[in-house]
Design goal:
The chain is of the alpha+beta class. 12% of the residues lie in helices and 31% in strands. A 6-stranded antiparallel sheet has the order 17-16-15-14-18-19, with no helix packed on it.
């Protein structure tokens, strides 16, 4: 009999994007319940220990977070398995570093350092728009925020720019063709391109066609499309590679060219 929520996560069942070695133990840190889903999140322990190498063990990560040194979206988090996810801003004031969790083209969360100016806001995708008690309109975002009295023009699938300190909406970007988007799921995870068109399939998944900066066109589900900019101007800085996926042959040629340049 399973009584209550699961408390463990086996190493082999952990998301591949965490890049944990297969033989490094039986278990992986199971993210706590929080604003992001288990398979779309990165626990703080993995970010601090495996990515930034600021700790060697989970015990050391616990010592770091318990000193209240780590802020996620402006709030101090003392849970080493707190699930950080797409577009979250992680601040470490002691080292004056700020990171935004964002996917690279391989679909992994990358270490993306940002300026303190950019750390003041984040982008959130609108999941639901409803009217609550006493006729108060509100919207729910992909990171579990509920924001009351939004602009009536904001609809589901749009993106809002949220001021982290106040939690207020600074700006919003409509889901329109011609706008820049990042893919947050499926096999095109982490790719960036402009929306070309949207196919409606009632009763099934709506499909969106997207074109990247090299002119490659690909299609994905509507749920995986996260608008990140108006026109071709992104509202957040993008990691190395700018979300353009190269074919295996192109990647090899780039590596060979880089090696040749280094050898000169």
């Amino acid at each position: 009999m399973a009584r209550g929520p699961k408390k463990h996560l086996k190493r082999l069942n952990a998301p591949k994007a965490w890049m944990l070695d297969k033989l490094g133990g039986v278990y992986a840190p199971r993210p706590s319940t929080g604003p992001h889903k288990l398979r779309e999140s990165l626990p703080l322990v993995i970010f601090l220990r495996n990515r930034l190498k600021y700790a060697l063990t989970k015990a050391e990560v616990t010592k770091i977070v318990m000193q209240r040194l780590i802020k996620v979206d402006g709030k101090v988090r003392t849970d080493p398995t707190f699930p950080t996810g797409f577009m979250d801003v992680v601040q470490i004031e002691k080292t004056n570093e700020t990171f935004r969790l964002i996917y690279d083209v391989k679909g992994r969360f990358t270490i993306h350092r940002i300026t303190p100016e950019e750390a003041k806001y984040k982008l959130c995708k609108v999941k639901r728009v409803q009217v609550g008690t006493k006729g108060v309109p509100f919207l729910v975002t992909n990171d579990g925020r509920t924001i009351r009295y939004p602009d009536p023009l904001v609809k589901v699938h749009d993106t809002i720019q949220v001021d982290i300190a106040s939690g207020k909406i600074m700006d919003f970007i409509k889901f329109d063709s011609g706008n820049l988007c990042m893919i947050t799921g499926g096999r095109n995870l982490g790719r960036v391109g402009t929306v070309v068109s949207r196919e409606r399939h009632p009763g099934s998944f709506d499909i969106v066609h997207i074109k990247d900066s090299l002119g490659h066109v690909f299609a994905t589900r509507l749920n995986y499309v996260f608008i990140i900019g108006k026109g071709s101007k992104p509202y957040v800085s993008l990691p190395k590679g700018k979300g353009v996926k190269l074919s295996i042959a192109d990647e090899r040629n780039k590596r060979i060219a880089a090696k040749a340049a280094a050898g000169l």
